[in-house]
Amino acid sequence: MFYHFCKTILNGGKHITRSPPPIHKLGFLRNPSLSLSLKYDYSSTTTKNQQPFSVSYLINTLGFSQEAAVSASRYVHLETPEKAESVVSFFKNHGFSQTQISKLIRRFPPVLLSDPDKTLFPKIDFLSSKGIPSPDLAKIFSGYPYLFKSSLEKQIIPSFDFYKNLLQSEAKTLEAIKRFPGILQRNIETCVAPNINIFRENGVSESNIITLFQCQPNAFNINPVRFREIVEEVKEMGFNPSRLKFALAVFTLRAVSKSTWKRKVNVYKKWGWSEDEISLAFRRHQWCMMASEDKIMRVMDFYVNNMGMGSSLIIKNPELVNYSLEKRLIPRGLVFQVLLSKGLVKKDFKMHTLFLCPEKTFLQKFVMPHKEEASELSKLYKEKLASSK
Asked: By its UniProt entry, which Gene3D superfamilies does this protein fall under (predicted)?
């Protein structure tokens, strides 16, 4: 904020404002560049206290907070609403909700300056022509609006064709795009293709490459030098390149930094696991190292302290780490405790099977047979599941 000061002197208890000298006596104003500079500063001072139109528009029309509007206004300058309104109307007409429009513009403010017909429509129309319905298109572009920056002819279409050839299926290509739209922006020649070739050189089958890419389309988005290092690390761990677990292990090490990996190892050690046991668990189920440190800690606490399971049992079944506490473990644990209190299960019951079995099997085996003996089971289980949503 700029402040204007009038110099005053105290004279007999009164403030007297001295008038400035005539402008022709201000010698430094004879320099025209200084004169221009002062004129600019003065005009900016008078407008600083007024909220820019861009900020007002983002707040009043799109529901931005003051902070978000100010931040976005750095990238887009609006003097009138017409151009922005045409963009907003375009998105509304193509099935975007108000929430999705606001999300899109928060992530990529310059989109408000786009020409809907020349910049936005061709990209939406291309993916629509491939069979992606409007609701999915809205999710794709609101979640990854940077696609609007990419050239349709030079980037998006060539990328689509490359992935379609790789996956040998347009349907699988569309599924991968829905999972991570950013693959359409990736540099194929310098990143994706070299990493796929590294896999091939090391004996990874095409079917496993396809499976990995379809499930984790961002898997090959990494510097090829680092990718090759990871492949070698996984081979040293004893993984067989011909097995899918090899590809999954590579993805895990690619997604988890070395420092994060060490922290997760230390969390498992707190529960009595040795380095060898952690390696064994990882070879059995790679995703056990994808869970966050907090998730690992909470899940282990649930199994060991709440359910009385031995830590070694989880080493043998490391997939137990990745189940949701709220949506699977706690509701099933409550059912087991009720059954145990009523003597309907034995104390030496293999508890890990309770959590590992599919939902249908769980209901058929642990809930439905005991309706009369424990009528509250079904209600308890459904209420707990409902509260987790």
From this structure: Transcription termination factor 3, mitochondrial
